[in-house]
Specification:
Layout (H helix, E strand, L loop, with lengths): L6 H19 L7 H4 L1 H30 L3 H11 L9 H11 L9 E7 L2 E4 L5 H23 L5 H22 L15 H14 L1 H4 L15 E2 L5 H10 L16 H13 L14 E2 L3 H9 L1
Antiparallel strand pairs: 1-2, 3-4
Length: 302
Amino acid sequence: MKKFFPVYVRVPVIFFSVFLALEYFVDSGDRPAFVKYPMVSVFLFVFLFLLIAIEIVKSAIDNITYQMMTDEQKKRLEEVTSIDISITDQQWYKNLMKKLTRSEPVENMSMLLDHDYDGIKELDNKLPPWWVYIFYITILFGAIYLVRFEIMGGDNQETELRKEIAQAKVDVAKYMLTAPDMMSESKVTKLTDAPSIAKGKAIFMANCTACHRADAGGQIGPNLTDDHWIFGGDIKNLFHTITNGGRDGKGMVAWKGTLKPTQIQQVASYVLSLQGSNPKNPKAPDGDLWVDPGQKSTEVKK
């Protein structure tokens, strides 16, 4: 029996069908499944190996079976397989191609004798309808394109890209202003509302009391309630110090890997709210007396 799908077509079709099915059903995010999950690659390799092995074994069995046939059986098999069942011989296919091409047999066409070049003559055949329709569509597209972009001044691809990039920058900037976990040293501000201070206190009690005491009077770490600071005493300085840590080898560890930026802002604001609380038996001042540069410049102007 004649095979409609030879092995060089059958194997790739089956393999890629399984491959696409795995990519569709396996949730791998924005990465291909065979890249994110190595076991998928192993499965595909084994499947392809077995697929080829099955085709080889099947071909070998068919060959052995053919060799074991008698001459009469071989002749009958060749007669069956020699039957032409090509799709191009079907009547519906011939009718379809005739509608698509409008081709006429050579005997029904006249030669254009005035186009005779070195014995080469051109047949007077009609253009295929699909080609004619595509040609008309290109003319219509060209007219619409001319009116839309050249006469009415529509945005071309480059202009659309620039507008989309500009809008994306605006959207990102707007998101950065409102996204809590995108807090940074350059835009951090001191929080004064009660809920934020309460959250900062909870973070301080859970992470900072071992070195600074529960009342922030200082123990291993410095007193956080006086006017002396090692790295500065405003919200930006505290945010930087808590995020990146203190002095190398003997200072506070960096908390950027443990606390989120918003949490650092909250605990820094809580620490600043303790200024002048005068805890019992505070640690001696450490660092330099801190004067707010903004306040100092205001006093100079006065």
